[in-house]
Amino acid sequence: MSAKVGHLAPKFDMPSTKNIEKLNENVKSEDHSGRWTVLLFYPLDFTFVCPTELTAFSDCYDDFQGIGADIIGVSTDSVYSHRAWLKTPRNEGGVADLKYPLASDLTKEVSRNYGVLIEDKGIALRGLFIIDPEGILRYSVIHDLNIGRSADETLRVIQALQTGGLCQANWRPGQQTIKVG
Questions:
Q1: Would you list the domain boundaries of the chain?
Q2: What is the pTM of this model?
Q3: What are 1-11's pLDDT values in tens digits?
Q4: Active site residues
Q5: What is the fold of 13-149?
């Protein structure tokens, strides 16, 4: 299955850091039914751009929760690598105190299904996917490895989607949607 906007999002079931000590709780698509879900694919733990964007999304976590959205970080690293990175302070290149789980796509199946896997390197591009409460993929953006994504823009896109209306360029929450007819 491949990810296509406007269609059912590919299902996922991956080991995660939901229980950081035991590492025994998976993240599953069905656990997010009825909520908006942001899948945030990134290349590797312990790199340079990745911690900046993962912590930016964590710093806005309450805003995402406030609009009914969950965040899941995903890479092809193991949950053991994720745990070590989560226990590394931010000022040392870590992502300590991240407010959402990191999922391990060791099999690379989920990255492949979402079209972000760099096959010859075994890592994911920076893919961001927004899945609506009914499991439909509503938004997809894929960046090259060197460019981080914007938590603020992701919040804006979810809020625009939640209006159910036509939102012009640079639309912001509180603004009118486009009226037709």
A1: 13-149
A2: 0.96
A3: 689 999 999 99
A4: 50
A5: Glutaredoxin (3.40.30)
